[in-house]
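Summary for the steering committee. The consortium agreed at its last meeting that each partner would contribute one worked example illustrating the joint modelling workflow. Our contribution is presented below. We chose a case with several input lines so that the handling of multiple components could be demonstrated. No manual editing was applied between input and output; the record is shown as generated.
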Amino acid sequence: NAGVTQTPKFQVLKTGQSMTLQCAQDMNHEYMSWYRQDPGMGLRLIHYSVGAGITDQGEVPNGYNVSRSTTEDFPLRLLSAAPSQTSVYFCASSPGGLAKNIQYFGAGTRLSVL
Amino acid sequence: EDQVTQSPEALRLQEGESSSLNCSYTVSGLRGLFWYRQDPGKGPEFLFTLYSAGEEKEKERLKATLTKKESFLHITAPKPEDSATYLCAVQARDTGFQKLVFGTGTRLLVSP
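What follows is the complete predicted structure of the assembly.
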């Protein structure tokens, strides 16, 4: 049971570098989301998708891009990394229908921007 | 603005010592309140969803309850393996189903 898989687990970037955080799920879930988790703050929604080809902004979208070309994959792109983007990033997926509100999380990517 | 406040921030219990965690919320019409467990270095793991005041859900030593202003997570006779951070989140009725507002969590440590 793979569930939601995030890669890499750890990453260090220099200010201004770009990178893509990968997220894949094998549960055929329609909905996928990206969150960031910072000390003293709750998880905050960055972007989400309700299906292939459909994405929307969450609470803190600035500096991040997403796309959803397949049901399985939902990559998060940092265009020009800044120290303020140092955080732990979680990808989540949820099924449609009555269970759509239950989100299943990956193990996270720990990102440091120097 | 929808808000979630969890208390206490941290709680230390002896094995077998029952207690409760609190989640106070303000939301413009509640669609659902969620409890998650998060172990160090891992992603949150779903525990319960509560939809209306008076509702209760149980799972092993955990029981979640809901009123119009707060939710409690009761832990009965906890064991060391219950040590984790417990997160509460709400979803408002007038927002998309994806938009959860999370609290900052309660870190629970259960000592043998």
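The mean pLDDT of chain B is 94. Chain B touches chain A at residues 4, 31-32, 34, 36, 41-46, 49, 87, 89, 91, 96-105 (CB under 8 Å).
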